[in-house]
Amino acid sequence: MKMIKNIVFLFAFLLIFYGCEKMFLESDPQNTSANNFEIFWKDFNRYYAQFIIRNINWDSVYTKYRPLVSSSSEQQLYSVFSKIVSGINDMHVDLHTPLGDVNWKSKAPDSYPSGRLINAGKYIQFGLSQNSIIEYRTCLNSSIGYIIIPTFSGGTDGLSLTDDRYLVIDEILSKWKDKKGIIIDLRWNHGGNSNNAETVASRFADKLRVYSQYREKTGPGKQDFSQWKNSTIEPKGTHQFLKSVVILTSRSTASSAEMFVMAMQVFPHVTIVGDTTGGGVGAPIYRELPNGWTYRLSTRYYADAQQQVMEGVGISPDVPVLTTVADSLKGIDRILEKGIEVITTSK
Known about the structure:
It is a single chain. By secondary structure, this protein is of the alpha/beta class. Among the domains are: 33-102, Transcription Regulator spoIIAA; 113-205 and 240-279 and 314-344, 2-enoyl-CoA Hydratase, Chain A, domain 1 (Alpha-Beta Complex), CATH 3.90.226.10. Helix content is 30%, strand content 18%. The longest helix has 24 residues, at 2-25. It is elongated and about 65 Å long. The chain starts with a helix and ends with a helix.
């Protein structure tokens, strides 16, 4: 009986030993162009959520580009990856290498005046810089407040925790409780941390509401997705502003800024004015190849509260307005003018 116990013990020990040996001695993935391509393709196959939305056949991408990758040329691999990344046309898909970066090309042309504030002094009272991540002024019509939020970036870990600088919104709303309305300008906000976006939006919430829905990629199969999940917004902070609010948007309004727009548009006292937003939230993750190159990919696709998918499309404004090049040369901010008009004529 003792001999049997010893044999069992020895057998268990050998299993543990060889298991640990394999764990510690298993080699890193080979750093070859061919292997880097395989890892890259499989990562997207497993995690990327928007192939169907963006009309991309990922198997065909493999068939087309895998034969072009040799085992020795990183320049060739970079050229292949550049074509693939550019073809996906997703603002949250990019590649970073010593040979160069490949990024999404904005749908907004260089001569796109709808994406910026024009001739501010014609519409807004000047004042000292507030040294805040949120700038706020009073319009020349002193019953209307004007807030610029150029980014939602920031947080203790850069991603999941709210940046306390955005809590200045409570101070602003305390000062502006008697305003007839507020304009929030997001026309050049490319996003950042969605927690910061929700922090600001919650100060305009009338009650708990579902403001967006999303599905997440859960496996390599084409239909491997989670069920729809809800994102909600509710009143938080010391003050809620429930009078007329206008959000100014453009094609440059993107990512977490679009989360903010989706949250705000479910409130009955909010009007979206301007151009359609950029069309990308995605919840991206970073991945790294054996050669040290890094890339991002979108793990989810988002829809609004009515389950209208906004990825690759954007969020349509309630009141569509464009500022033309001719307008900008004349010092006219057509989008801001319409926002002021919406509040001025509100009841």
